[in-house]
Each structure stands twice: as structure tokens, then as C-alpha cells.
Specification:
Elements lengths: L1 E5 L22 E7 L10 H15 L4 E6 L12 E6 L7 E6 L2 E5 L2 H17 L3 H13 L2
Helix pairs in contact: 1-3
């Protein structure tokens, strides 16, 4: 999974409600690009996967959350097999990339590394289904379970 989290640079109040049900102002924007393979993994069985997919669909309806699916037919892509979080700060100098590995997370801060992952994320956004198509795709998988 590739994700980008970004704290909005404005201080306008937002009507987004986090998972715990409390009102939130200025919630961080969260964009996730999930490969289709991850949507079929049945750790815990069909019932657990269905619940996970339904939760993903519910969260994708939040104003500050975007979930996009990278389908199998999109082909190969940079960073395949990695879980990456690109956290954008209020300025680019505060951006951080977290890459998960078998030994734990690596945090990357160098501009060259950040530029590489920004480019990867932009390419993945072009390859992934649009948010509405992604929700329909996830719903289709969940309904087959």
C-alpha cells in the first residue's frame, strides 16, 4: 500500500468526524493507493476480510480520506511489494517517507529520496482507479465474500 498524508495548510474548520466519533477541525488529508492483491488477502477468513473492506469503504466516504485501487491490469509499478507512507509537512523540508521492511520502518528525509517517492506516488495516482471507481471495485469484492 502506498499512502500520502498531508496536513492542510489552511486553518479553516472542517466537518470531518474521525473514527472515534469526536468532531475534528483541520483533519489531515489522507490518500491511500491500495493494490488489488491486498483487497483479496484473507487473513482471518472471509468474514474478517468483508468487515475490513466495509470499514475501508466507510472511511473512504470521509471528506479528508481518499482510497484508490491499483488494479491487477495496471501492470507493474514502482515500489511494488513495499508499504510506503509519504507524510507531507507544512513545508517540503518537513516531508518524511516511511518505508516498511521486514526489520522495521526506515524513515527517509533527503530531498533526492523524497523526490523519488513523490514521483512514484504521482505515477501511481495516474495508474489507479478514480475514487468512485475504487469504491465500486472494493464493494464488488466485498459482495462476493
Amino acid at each position: 500500500m502506498h499512502a500520502r498524508a498531508r496536513k492542510r495548510r489552511t486553518s479553516q474548520p472542517r466537518s470531518v468526524t474521525p473514527h472515534d466519533g469526536t468532531p475534528s477541525g483541520g483533519a489531515a488529508e489522507f490518500v491511500a493507493i491500495v493494490h488489488e492483491a491486498a483487497l483479496h488477502m484473507q487473513f482471518g477468513g472471509r468474514t474478517v476480510l468483508r468487515a475490513q473492506l466495509e470499514h475501508l469503504l466507510e472511511r473512504s466516504q470521509q471528506e479528508n480520506v481518499t482510497v484508490r485501487v491499483l488494479p491487477f491490469d495496471a501492470g507493474g509499478f514502482p515500489g511494488a511489494g513495499q508499504t510506503v507512507l509519504y507524510a507531507e509537512g507544512p513545508t517540503r523540508q518537513l516531508d518524511t517517507v516511511q518505508v516498511d521492511n521486514s526489520h522495521g520502518p526506515d524513515f527517509l528525509y533527503a530531498e533526492a529520496q523524497l523526490g523519488k517517492y513523490r514521483a512514484h506516488f504521482e505515477l501511481l495516482e495516474k495508474m489507479a482507479l478514480a475514487p468512485g471507481e475504487s469504491r465500486a471495485f472494493i464493494h464488488s469484492i466485498a459482495s462476493q465474500l
